[in-house]
Amino acid sequence: TQTTQKWLQNYVDDWVNFYQKNTNEGEVASYIPILQEANQQHLGISILGINGMEIRSGNVEIPFTIQSISKVFTFIVACIQRGVSYVLSKVDVEPTGGAFNSIMHLETRQVKKPFNPLVNAGAITITSMLIGDTAERKLEGFYQLLEKILGYRPPLNIDVYQSENESSVRNRAIGYYLLEMGYLESELDLTLETYFKQCSIEITIDDLARLGMILANDGEDPSTQEEIIPRQVARLAKVLMLTCGMYDASGKFAAYVGIPAKSGVSGGIVAVAPPRARDHQLPFLDGCGIGVYGPALDKQGNSIAGIRLLRHIANQWDLSIF
Ligand code: GLN
């Protein structure tokens, strides 16, 4: 096992160095002004196996805000609080093929609900369903879930929250549209405040690897056998990640990488490689969560170097679920 771990570590180190060259491509997100302060050159990866094996490489210590990755976990919390069938009666599970902050897709839709919980319109609707009459109370279940998985309560980055709140024209437009359609279950300002705060929680790639690992293990903590996320909800979360998690690049990500993943505009990606039924080339890593960070983004808003690194590793290690 130790030689395998060492071999895997060297392998990952080599490819992080290689793909670090790609960080000159793309751009750091700027529509939330403070996100521009991120260092475009950064690239890091953290892999955590269900069996506990850990591989970390590159810029692993940099904290960043969770952004859209939060949408997976507020969806999970809404399902736990309100029941899966109720949540799915309000938000659909169809990919849009459009941008994450699209309004057009809301307007042209025949079915009277937002497309899915991982685009802004669906995510804001999900946030409106969280129980509580203040943003802090609405986020309590989300924080509790994170704390249960990570072992600590990640902090809110107040500067990012303020920057996003001040530059939130598009999300407000989406919010007003949702309000007009009668989709929101809590008052608009409260819903948006909660949504911007959930996006501004600060985490690391180690946290993403752990969150991904729990999903890879169908919601159960492998060391305690505790069910942290109901199996059915964990499964739905992975379906959404696979079909909608990488915005309008989700199809390509499924084709070329082949595992559920969710990205955020600060440059993080959480990926989930579930254990494989058949004999696996790398039994020591059969089932893992992967966190990557690389703030230089492509036009869809996904980390360029992060996707290339994930694609390389997933192909070499045969992680595709298909
Ligand atoms: N807070 C961001 C927004 O709604 C999250 C978007 C993202 O990460 N794609 O604009």
UniProtKB/TrEMBL annotation:
Keywords: Acetylation, Hydrolase. Its EC number is 3.5.1.2. It catalyses: L-glutamine + H2O = L-glutamate + NH4(+). One of its GO terms (biological process) is glutamate biosynthetic process. GO terms for molecular function: glutaminase activity. Substrate binds at residues 68, 120, 164, 171, 195, 247, 265. It comes from the Bacteria. SUPFAM superfamilies: beta-lactamase/transpeptidase-like (SSF56601). Pfam families: Glutaminase. Belongs to the glutaminase family. Homotetramer. PANTHER family: GLUTAMINASE, GLUTAMINASE 1. This is Glutaminase. The lineage of its organism: Bacteria, Bacillati, Bacillota, Bacilli, Bacillales.
